[in-house]
């Protein structure tokens, strides 16, 4: 795991507060392990199905880890792991008022993302596809609309399966990608982590450079002057 993190160039690691055991055993404390490597820990509320549970988990994270950062997840369906938008918005509003820096996992719905920004969330994190599916960016047009609609940073959360998916997310104007399964379950995780780093860098550079418009018909790229007829 630590080799993959180093190869990826990531600076932030998100950790589920409900799925990680707190221990003082040397070498087994995940939080200490990450901090030793200079990582910023982003606790998350994975496994919460109500705003109440998510708010409680966020407060436990702030007390245990002494951070106001929280990746907010409120799941509406266990099989698809899609967010419950109503509960998510309710939890986000409460946590922002309580002084948290909220990074919400949400649907790729522009209206939901705009509402989260208006509430005061620090970023919006729409899914590219279901968590762990590796299906890539299923609706790039929505991601583009979200990019145009919100001013806060935009991070694709979930669905990235390989390096090209990460590059596409960045080419669409995202500020980053959040991923786990694509690296953790790759045949060679460290190599995949390195590929993700390069893809993110290339995708961002392409976005800043500006792609050419798509056209139905060919356009000659060579100069027309001096052509012998």
TrEMBL record:
It catalyses: [ThiS sulfur-carrier protein]-C-terminal-Gly-aminoethanethioate + 2-iminoacetate + 1-deoxy-D-xylulose 5-phosphate = [ThiS sulfur-carrier protein]-C-terminal Gly-Gly + 2-[(2R,5Z)-2-carboxy-4-methylthiazol-5(2H)-ylidene]ethyl phosphate + 2 H2O + H(+). Coiled coil: none annotated. The keyword Transferase applies. It comes from the Eukaryota. InterPro entries: Aldolase_TIM, Thiazole_synthase_ThiG, ThiG. Keywords: Schiff base, Thiamine biosynthesis, Transferase. Residues 1-223 form the Thiazole synthase ThiG domain. GO terms for molecular function: thiazole synthase activity. Pfam families: ThiG (PF05690). The keyword Transferase applies. Pathway: Cofactor biosynthesis; thiamine diphosphate biosynthesis. Its EC number is 2.8.1.10. Catalyzes the rearrangement of 1-deoxy-D-xylulose 5-phosphate (DXP) to produce the thiazole phosphate moiety of thiamine. Sulfur is provided by the thiocarboxylate moiety of the carrier protein ThiS. In vitro, sulfur can be provided by H(2)S. This is thiazole synthase. It comes from Geodia barretti (Barrett's horny sponge). The lineage of its organism: Eukaryota, Metazoa, Porifera, Demospongiae, Heteroscleromorpha.
């Amino acid at each position: 795991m630590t080799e993959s993190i180093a190869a990826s160039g990531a600076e932030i690691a998100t950790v589920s507060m409900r799925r990680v055991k707190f221990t003082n055993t040397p070498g087994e404390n995940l939080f200490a392990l990450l901090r030793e490597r200079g990582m910023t820990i982003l606790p998350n509320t994975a496994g919460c199905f109500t705003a109440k549970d998510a708010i409680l988990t966020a407060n436990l994270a702030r007390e245990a880890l002494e951070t106001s950062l929280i990746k907010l997840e409120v799941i509406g369906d266990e099989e698809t792991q899609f967010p419950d938008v109503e509960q998510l918005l309710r939890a986000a509003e409460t946590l922002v008022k309580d002084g948290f820096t909220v990074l919400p996992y949400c649907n790729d719905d522009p209206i939901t993302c705009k509402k989260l920004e208006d509430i005061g969330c620090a970023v919006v994190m729409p899914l590219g596809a279901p968590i762990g599916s590796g299906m890539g960016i299923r609706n790039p047009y929505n991601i583009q609309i979200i990019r145009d609609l919100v001013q806060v940073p935009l991070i694709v959360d979930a669905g990235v399966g390989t390096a090209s998916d990460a590059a596409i997310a960045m080419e669409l104007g995202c500020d980053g990608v959040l991923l786990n399964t694509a690296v953790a379950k790759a045949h060679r995780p460290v190599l995949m982590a390195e590929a993700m780093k390069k893809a993110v860098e290339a995708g961002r550079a392409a976005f800043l450079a500006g792609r050419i418009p798509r056209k139905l018909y060919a356009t000659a790229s060579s100069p027309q002057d001096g052509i012998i007829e």
